[in-house]
Amino acid sequence: MEPIEINQLQNHIDKLANKEVYIHLETTNGAYASHFNQDAYNLGAFIRNAKVIYQRGKVVGTGTAYRVGLKLDIGWIYAEGVNQYEVDEHNRILMAGHDREGRLMVALQISETPFQY
Amino acid sequence: MSEHVVVIYPHPDDEAFGASGTITTFREKGIPVTYLCGTLGEMGRNMGNPTFATRETLPEIRKKELIKACEVLDINLEMLGYRDKTLEFESTEEVAEHLFSFLDKLKPSLVITHYPGHAVHPDHDAFGAAAIKAVEMFPENERPTVWAQAISRTHLEELGEPDVQNDVGEVFTKKFETIQAHKSQADGMLSKVRNEADDIVEATKQWLGVESFYTWNF
Fold first, then answer.
1. Is the Cβ–Cβ distance between B149 and B212 less than 8 Å?
2. Per-residue model confidence as pLDDT tens digits over B173-196
3. Is residue A63's pLDDT more than 90?
4. Which of A2, A13, B109, B217 lies in the 20 to 30 Å Cα band around B46?
5. How far apart are CA B185 and CA B64, in angstroms?
6. In this model, does residue B84 exceed pLDDT 70?
7. For residue B93, is pLDDT > 90?
8. Which residues of A touch B87 (CB under 8 A)?
9. Where are the domains of chain A?
10. Backbone angles phi, psi at B41, to 5 degrees
């Protein structure tokens, strides 16, 4: 993955607008959060292979963290804290936010074919 | 009964951090060891530092790391094909049947797994519970011994001292090598030690040099 180059990422997101796509959306602070720090809460959520069509998608932010919003017919998909991305060999847009130690905090991925189960 | 140790954990690297010293001492005595590994750690959070894995490449990377670690330990590996973070939502009976299908063939003398309810990660608790249910499927006089590993913060006060405490200091080089085989995860797990210690192997030994288990009472 590479640091986000906003115009390039925006182009990739535009290309998949108004098409049937599969989404992987995830956020987590890890299964050990409250084990290592009693004051912390474990939290996380993921949805894999949600099939949607977005009318438009937009990347907003500066420098080290970006927000991505995808506008659906009757809803939204939103991710905050994204800082790296790549378009992989299957033409999937993989976006993620990592902390200083390389741990994943948030992921948003868009693909024209289902993600492997 | 001939000796055969079966290790049942859900994630690639659970065996390295939790039992690789104990496994090494069994292998040094020529006792075969088989690892039934539940998932490929698909949802792991450590993506390398600097990041080299993505959510989609992580399973393949961790599969290679797992195979390497099992080569280091010279043990047999069976990958069971569940998905990381979902084990607690599977049917415990079905998972137990699946585990039993292996145990029935391998006829282990000892099973090592997580202590359900004291293993912190939901996958650990669920897989440990299924492993114990699987062992219960043997007739009482054919049941292998089960060593259950508790890592919760409350295990000492709630369960007392573990009755098996293996000091694995003498084989720690092998344990460290096994942990290092899981490169994507080791970088993150060892980063705290690395930041605070000059000799990372010695500091890791202080942390992971004793492997403790509770013999399960059926």
1. yes
2. 999 999 999 999 988 778 777 777
3. no
4. A13
5. 13
6. yes
7. yes
8. none
9. 2-111
10. 60, 40
**Distance (Å) from the alpha carbon of A102 to chain B's nearest alpha carbon:** 5
For residue B122, the chain A residues in CB contact (below 8 A) are 31
Report d(CA B155, CA B40) in Å as an integer. Answer: 27
What CATH code is assigned to A2-111?
A: 2.70.180.10
Please determine, for residue B26, whether its predicted confidence score (pLDDT) is greater than 90: yes
Chain A partners within 8 Å of B118 (Cβ): none
A28 Cα to chain B: minimum distance (Å):
8
Flag if B43 and A28 touch (Cβ within 8 Å).
yes
pLDDT digits (tens, 9 = 90+) for B115-173: 999 999 999 999 999 999 999 999 999 999 999 999 999 999 999 999 999 999 999 99
Q: CB distance A102–B46 less than 8 Å?
A: yes
- CB within 8 Å: A109 and B121: no
Report the top-level CATH class of B5-215. Answer: alpha beta
Phi, psi of B56 (to 5 degrees): -85, -25
pTM value?
A: 0.94
* ipTM score assigned to the predicted complex: 0.92
The minimum CA-CA distance between B181 and chain A, rounded to whole Å, is: 18
**Quick check: helix, strand or coil at residue A40?**
coil
Letter for the amino acid at B8? I
